[in-house]
Amino acid sequence: MSRYRLSLLVFLALVALPGQGHPLRMVVHDFAPFTFADEAGRAQGALVELVKEACRRRAEGCEILYRPSRRARLMLERGWVDAMFPLGVTPERLVKLNFSAPIASTRYGFYCASDSPLQTLSADTLSGMKVGTFGPSFTQYLLEQVNQEVMARTGVGMTLDVQPNADAKGLAKLVYRRYPLYFSNIHSADYHLRQNKLSGVRQLGGVNLKVEYRIGFAKGRVSPDEVSRFNGLLHQLEKEGVASRIRARWQLSEPDLGAPLTSLGALDLLRDDHS
């Protein structure tokens, strides 16, 4: 066999749509407690357990890879994997991805040093403020939506200090006065505060954004029928209570299974009753 034909066969195998006989190839990144890696670099976490259970019921199975955040997103963007999770819905992602049913609900909010004079946030208090966050990520996307509203209401937006990893370091910088506010996924922030025994940090009121996490399947690699088939497996886990038990073990919230497949808009996010 010529080198050209061998290369062509390898290429076709890599880009083939998953189907009968093909495991779904998924990627996750360091976003505890949802997804992270053990000491051997293997994917683990609450949603890894949940998705693995669905994959176990799929005849062709799945392969779940762990990669650093930027690498994981690049693999999905380049079509090197079939899916990534957990993902929130954005207009840009809707163009390229088909989303699963919700697999967990989560919330986002602002954190500050415990001795901060701030109590409840508003557009006026956020105006001109330096705010840390994790990105590029859905977290950063949400903060940018809030920033648009702050600018629309006050004329002066926030300054974003984007950290490369969703870990305790971003929260610790509040204690070190690197910035007065940090915007984060609440489950992730609380997990890292507990795991690292980090004191001197508290959550602020004024913004409490609820989001449904899903699996994003690459449209160029996974057919809508295959996504529907996987959704059927997720539905089985919900019906049997398997998914609920996994989420409870990790202190995660139940998803709104009837939530519409839409992204949050930029309007009216600065409300403490947002749901």
Automatic annotation (TrEMBL):
Q: What are the entry keywords? A: Signal
Task: Spell out the InterPro entries in the cross-references.
Answer: Solute-binding_3/MltF_N
| Segments forming domain Solute-binding protein family 3/N-terminal | 23-254
This protein's source sits in the domain of life called Bacteria
By sequence similarity, the record places it as follows: Belongs to the bacterial solute-binding protein 3 family.
| The name this protein goes by in its record | Extracellular solute-binding protein
What is the species listed in this Swiss-Prot or TrEMBL entry? Aeromonas diversa CDC 2478-85
